């Protein structure tokens, strides 16, 4: 029988184990046997383990080497701080609480920072446990630097991990497909179900969960935020073009304004894809924006609109144009976001400024916003940081109060075995305890058989490290703890004479760490993200209901009704600086003050809910086939509401008849009420049915108002369909993948992602 090929995960683990083993062994043996510096040897041994095994730093070899170099100054500072604060148990515990929270909370900055967090914590943990020896600080720093530099060299030279495809390449490929589809539609090839399937598949590939962690644009900086928004907007383009290709009535008579806009969309998408690949300069978004404005003006003219005396045919044309406008506006958003991401543009290119709020602030300001947005008990990042700090502080208190000879192992067990839910923590520590027991027995046998022959431990250490670091991450905590117990026994037995009590101390310390971690898991948010995702989605749905009502009220207004400006005062200056008026054709209406407030609240709560969902999908026991609410689709529904609140006020023309105003407010009110009901989870049985746009109103409404009403109707019906589908389909059911972008991390006002954004 042919042998089964090794899985990519096992190959990656083996290669990483080889790099870490070579770096650790080279530093440890050189410091111990050539320089006779045991303290240097300890830090040279643990530095590659901390940054290469405990830290899941994403990316290829160059990416990981770069992250390690960036983290090195922080590691040096933490080692110095830990050495200083180890003077008393009280100061060490206080430092552990503060440092544990600060470093853990820094994971909000993105995947690279989150990956380096465990390793950075290990440097402080290693330096602050007894005994207090400040005179050894130069040796500690020397070993740390030596081990880190050796790991960097191994990352670059020894079986280097291949580079990861950047997220911008995924966006570029999707934009090329969108450009080809838009051009085919302009040439009359519209009804194409097979093309629709390819478009949707390409859209799924832009989900952050489908991208490697290293390439996910979830950082706090301007470039990551812009690329994430470009990916989300590109997916909306693909989904909208797919819906157009699926409609049999899309292959109707030619519509010159639509064909012209489709060609412009195709050119804009192709140009943006070329810019992402570096083949050309970033195209200016203004040309596509001007074409959209002209298309909107054509729709609003009483004559030359393409409408027929057949009400249903006219409505089909209006719906087609409305869908095309959604695709074009999304393409414009993607183009402008790319201009911010790689073109250095610091404004919104004439688009709604709130869509690109991150383009203006400095990098420092954006990072501060990312942190302050998560300083809330509802943020899972905040909860995880508090849980980690409490666990490490309690472990340091126990190690100091009981004067444990190897108290470092207690803290290491808390650091490596803690999970975000009590159930997952119990499962992990149970396996770890069994593995440590077996490993301690094996270590006892090794020490007993080897006696005082140091060369035996030296010969065992390297193969033990390679097996532990390659098998442990794949096989689970039992194997990881058992094999690592053998590693530390072989290492510490070379530093000082050892007997079987070393294995006993290792077992007792790990059990103490497991107990502390389990207690913290039970006391500090034991449900993990499960409770927070439920609460977060409920909060953001309630905010979205208010946003929908405020947006519709700002868009569909009766003749003579005062139009609030951005501050909420009637007649306040609009975006152009002139006084707002309800009948200013050709220009966007100022945003209603209530809509602005609802938008800010919705963006912030969306970010918190997205962070909770990103963690929820990583916690034990969550399966794609789980029954229950479709949290992902709920977040997509909110994201679409936010996008509509940006664009609908820009597309409004002229005062609407009183009956149209009544219909719009009634339909939005029914949808908002359904969102309130859906917020009281479980939402099974919640049906969102906004009042359909009556054919009589389509026939009687003035031509300039018809596109506005169709746009509002399409938006409300889309949101209603997604809201109805939330209940009982599972976290990632088939309805969830039809629209939106998982973990989209840039719409919020500074809160963090996964993601997954």
Describe the structure.
- It is a single chain.
- The chain is mostly helical and 757 residues long.
- Helix content is 66%, strand content 0%.
- It is built from 25 helices and no strands.
- It has helices at residues 8-34, 38-54, 61-85, 89-105, 111-128, 137-157, 167-186, 193-204, 222-246, 256-276, 286-300, 311-341, 363-372, 380-401, 408-417, 422-450, 454-475, 477-495, 501-523, 529-555, 593-616, 631-647, 658-679, 695-700, 706-724.
- Helix 7 (167-186) packs parallel to helix 9 and helix 20 runs parallel beside helix 22.
- The longest helix is centred in the middle third of the chain and has 31 residues, at 311-341.
- The radius of gyration is 30 Å and the shape is elongated.
- The model is unreliable at 563-591, 620-626 and 728-757 (pLDDT under 50).
Label this structure with key terms.
25 helices, mainly alpha
Summarize the structure.
By secondary structure, the protein is mostly helical. It has helices spanning 8-34, 38-54, 61-85, 89-105, 111-128, 137-157, 167-186, 193-204, 222-246, 256-276, 286-300, 311-341, 363-372, 380-401, 408-417, 422-450, 454-475, 477-495, 501-523, 529-555, 593-616, 631-647, 658-679, 695-700, 706-724.
Instruction: Give the biggest beta sheet.
Output: none
Series of H and E elements: HHHHHHHHHHHHHHHHHHHHHHHHH
Strand content: under 5%
Number of helices: 25
Low-confidence stretches: 563-591, 620-626, 728-757
User: Taking all residues together, what is the mean pLDDT?
Assistant: 80
Helix content: 55-70%
**Using only CA atoms, what is the Rg?**
30 Å
Helix and strand content put the structural class at mainly alpha
Overall 3D form:
elongated
Strand tally? 0
Distance between the termini: 45 Å
